[in-house]
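Reopening this one. Same input as before:
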Amino acid sequence: MRQGAVVFGGGDRLHVRVADTQSERAAGLMHVMALAPDDGMAFVFDGPVTDQFWMKDTLIPLSVVFVGEDGRIISESDMNPCTADPCPTYPASGAYTMAIEANLGWFHDHGVRVGSMARLEPPDG
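Same output, byte for byte:
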């Protein structure tokens, strides 16, 4: 899985694993025991999608933001680990081309909100 960095409008950077295939997106952060404070995952899609996220077999609480085609965040959610069947789902407020997961509260703590810009870069910028 390739690496990258998401840079937000205020200059904050989140180091991410890039999930850009169906199998990588399906696995997401399942079974991951911990993330470093500024690490996460970027789910990249070829075009706008409306897929809902869920936390099946995900062990750590996460926050997610959904990024529209114009690079602006359109919605955000906090998600808790789930072992139930079925697990709750977390929809975006509209179509998006990238979703970014980070440790619970990361976006709030860094001032990243709906309307903020987000762009994916190579890991070294």
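So the earlier flakiness isn't reproducible anymore. For the record, The chain is about 10% helix and 45% strand.
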